[in-house]
């Protein structure tokens, strides 16, 4: 059973998708702790409702490494093996990333390496691409640059607005993240250089 920690800053719909996938047995693991850097993140409510420990560790007014040390200690003391960034709006420093090397996943609302950074859906919409989507990747020391694990494409419709497009991308995020976590839980992800290879399922 994989022990998962989820970091959030906001509404936590991806967190909910992970909780639901665990509940359906689609992830053979458990969420041990949810940590938010914002006290008013709705995701904290979702965690509590699911009986999961919900912690607030404020980032504001703190040295980055002090904040990250607190988060790392909270995760490690609960035996967390995989850290999932689900709408966590802070860039992590190399200190944290090395401490959880190849054990941190992020979800990004575009097909990386297109449209990294903030408001990826708005960037894709403004650019006028016909296909965008979402990406789950391991976190490395760049912003949205780590090895890609799962991508799901989403077609841009002629009558889309940035909002309707974001909504359809979010639906696919909710499928992609649990899938990536389960690949990790099954020991099927092998990182070599910038590639995450998906090994075949063992029978
Ligand atoms: C998602 O679009 C995710 O891709 C991005 O932040 C958003 C978080 O949404 N990193 P939620 O908090 O999971 O609902």
What does it look like?
This protein is an alpha/beta fold. It has two domains: 100 residues, Rossmann fold (3-Layer(aba) Sandwich), CATH 3.40.50.170; 97 residues, 3-Layer(aba) Sandwich (Rossmann fold). 35% of the residues lie in helices and 26% in strands. It has six helices and nine strands. The strands form two sheets. It has a seven-stranded mixed beta sheet with strand order 3-2-1-4-5-6-7. Helix 4 links the parallel strand 4 and strand 5. The model has no long low-confidence stretch (mean pLDDT 97). It binds 5-O-phosphono-beta-D-ribofuranosylamine. 5-O-phosphono-beta-D-ribofuranosylamine (GRF) binds next to helix 1, strand 5 and helix 6.
Chain-wise SSE layout:
Layout: E1 2-8, H1 13-23, E2 29-36, H2 42-49, E3 53-56, H3 64-77, E4 82-85, H4 94-99, E5 104-108, H5 120-127, E6 131-138, E7 148-155, H6 162-185, E8 189-192, E9 195-198
Parallel strand pairs: 1-2, 1-4, 2-3, 4-5
Antiparallel strand pairs: 5-6, 6-7, 8-9
Bound molecules: 5-O-phosphono-beta-D-ribofuranosylamine (GRF).
Summarize, please.
By secondary structure, this protein is an alpha/beta fold. Helix content is 35%, strand content 26%.
Flag low-confidence runs. Answer: none
Name the overall outline. Answer: globular
Rg from alpha-carbon coordinates: 16 Å
Percent in helix? 25-40%
Largest pleated sheet: 7 strands, mixed
CATH architecture of the largest domain: 3-Layer(aba) Sandwich
CATH class of the largest domain: Alpha Beta
The total of beta strands comes to 9
What integer is the average pLDDT? 97
> In the residues, how many domains can be counted?
2
Q: What compounds sit in this structure? A: 5-O-phosphono-beta-D-ribofuranosylamine
Order of helices and strands: EHEHEHEHEHEEHEE
Report the oligomer.
Answer: single chain
Distance between the termini: 18 Å
CATH homologous superfamily (4th level) name of the largest domain: Formyl transferase, N-terminal domain
Range of strand content: 25-35%
Number of helices: 6
The neighbouring-strand order within the major sheet is: 3-2-1-4-5-6-7
């Amino acid at each position: 059973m994989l022990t998962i920690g989820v970091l959030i800053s906001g509404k936590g719909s991806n967190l909910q998708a992970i909780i639901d996938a665990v509940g359906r047995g689609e992830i053979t693991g458990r969420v041990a702790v949810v940590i938010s850097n914002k006290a008013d993140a709705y995701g904290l409510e979702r965690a509590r409702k699911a009986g999961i420990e919900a912690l607030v560790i404020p980032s504001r007014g703190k040295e980055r490494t002090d904040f990250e040390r607190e988060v790392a200690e909270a995760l490690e003391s609960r035996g967390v093996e995989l850290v999932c960034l689900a709408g966590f709006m802070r860039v992590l420093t190399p200190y944290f990333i090395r401490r959880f090397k190849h054990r941190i996943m992020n979800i990004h609302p575009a097909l990386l390496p297109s449209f990294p950074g903030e408001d990826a859906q708005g960037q894709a919409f403004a650019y006028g691409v016909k296909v965008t989507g979402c990406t789950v990747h391991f976190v490395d020391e760049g912003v949205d640059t780590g090895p890609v694990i799962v991508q799901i494409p989403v077609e841009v419709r002629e009558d889309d607005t940035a909002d309707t497009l974001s909504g359809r991308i979010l639906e696919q995020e909710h499928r992609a993240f649990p899938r990536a976590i389960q690949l990790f839980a099954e020991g099927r992800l092998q990182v070599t250089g910038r590639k995450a290879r998906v090994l075949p399922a063992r029978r």
